[in-house]
Hints:
The protein is mainly beta.
Amino acid sequence: MSINHNRIKVADLEKNQPNKILTTNTSGELEFSEINDIKIDSYNALDYTIAGKALDARQGKILKDLVDNINILLTSDNVNLDTVQELVNAIKTVQTSLSTILVNDLSTGGTTKALTAEMGKSLKALIDALTNSKLDIANISQDIETEKVSTTKVASVKQLYDWSASLFQTWVLGINRILGVTYTVGLNDYKTKNIFSNSSPIALSVPSNTSVTIPIGTKFSYTVQGSGTVTIIGAGITFIQKNLVYTTGDTFFLEKTDTNTWVVEGNVPAPTVVIGNVYIHASAGFGNDSTAQLGNPARPFLTLSAAMSAAESNNLYRTFIFMTASSGPYYMNGSFGAGQYTFYSDFPVIISLQNNALSGLIMTNSTDLIIDIPTGTVDFRSTIVKNQTQLWGVKVSIKCRTYIMNDGFIVRGNPLNLICEELIHHGGFLNPSNGSIGGIIKANTITSTTAGISDLTQSGDNFILDFNQCTTTNGLVLAQYCRSATINHGNYTCGSSATFTYVVQWHPNAVITINYKGDCLVSGNVRLSQQIANQILKFTGCVTYTGTVPLFYRVVGLAKFFNCQIKCAVLTTQFFVNNYVAFEFTNCYIECGYDFLDFSNVGPMTFTSPIARFKGNNVVYMTSIPQNYIKASSTTNNMIIEVIGNLRTNGILQPGVTQSNLIT
Length: 664
């Protein structure tokens, strides 16, 4: 029996020895030893792998803490992670997901993907590059139109909007209603619907590029609503077109294709020939004497003289219509044949005589002349003497703003109707009517600049002269040799201190009615009438004469005053009476200076009838000394003043004069 193994004695097992521990001695035998004598070989770490070592109590504490932490984790409210295995499985899942949700490029994308830190670094580098690349101010566009082909220029949002708006039509700004008879294309017309509504002819002017700079390519639209014909014109403009005249209902377009070149698009109506009409349009590129056609408004003449020459070859055409806003002047020439000639325009044109030296414009009694240019001028002045240059005609009718005349040209109408705003008189006279046919001369203002006293009318009958203001340098006789006339009398001013007749003169048996307008004022030394025989002058209204000369001088006739208020220095002097009533006053107020009625120059005579008659209620008030109410000659007898009604006066009654019902 081998003894190469541990042995223990039986006797030792039977002993009572406390605090003993069984150990192996050096001989391999088991024996009891004291516990306190045993040497423990321990390791104070948890990573030792050799057998036989004892775990230090401190490491036990560490193990306990780890176990406690695990227990805390296992007490989590997440029921799916309440075991260590579940935690391990979750960690593995997270590790697997991290490898699929991270993206290491900037192009893959994905709503459930995340960029790596390296990609964040790449993004930062890109942002830094953008931040450091600033726009150079030299590359900012100042004019898109001129720099639109540049590859380096940039524009603001507003610049882009404004430029785009200039290229395309838009009607957001509403309607542009054009009410007048002239209109110039405007830069902003493309923004609106442009509508012409006037009933008179309209001139649409296209401005040159130097006047209004409109971008090339801009397009405008226009519509004609009113009855007025619209004509397109433009100084220095080249029109690419087939029609420049548009009428009611037409819509047309203007498009700028070059600096001063425009395309006109719209209705191209068939030429409408109006029998009798001759059209004149003094605009270069439109009116043309070589290509003009009688009666065709689309092919007008350039000059009036050419139009008149062409019309004389065709008796059907006698109405001349001016379609232009150009003032002219437009010259008449040659002698007219029989028929009615009409000149019409709503534009301020000037109709004049050829070179101011025309002879024999109309020399027939079977010709009528009508000039109707309400805003224009008729200039009938000539350098030929008046006896050689006269306008004869069955009927002369002129309506204009300004009428100008002189000694070189005389209008003899039968009747003559002249209506104007301004009548400028440099000489000559008007013959307003003949016989029982009446005429009218009406002007707001009459201005006479003749060197001496001259006549406005001569030998006229049954006509009306109407004015608001007459101004004369040396004197103007309103009605010379006239048998009958009515003068609606406005203010009259004379710059000369000479005395003269300014109303009627010379014609016997004339009947002239003068109606003073408002509170009429006559300034300067003037007379009403002189040396008239058997005339009857009728007066109404209120008038004040500022001169110091008698209103009537050496008069043989009858002056009748109805409801008048007259203020003057002296009413009459050197009165010649043929034994009948010389003055008749009805309901009048007369305010005189020192002489009212002066009969002191009447020779020896015995009157058989009153020399003055007062009817109704009259007042004669004398303002100066002597207060000669009636001034009589000592050789006259039976000078009677007849009062039918009441007469109040503060004047002095001369000896030899009797009267009835005088109230002083």
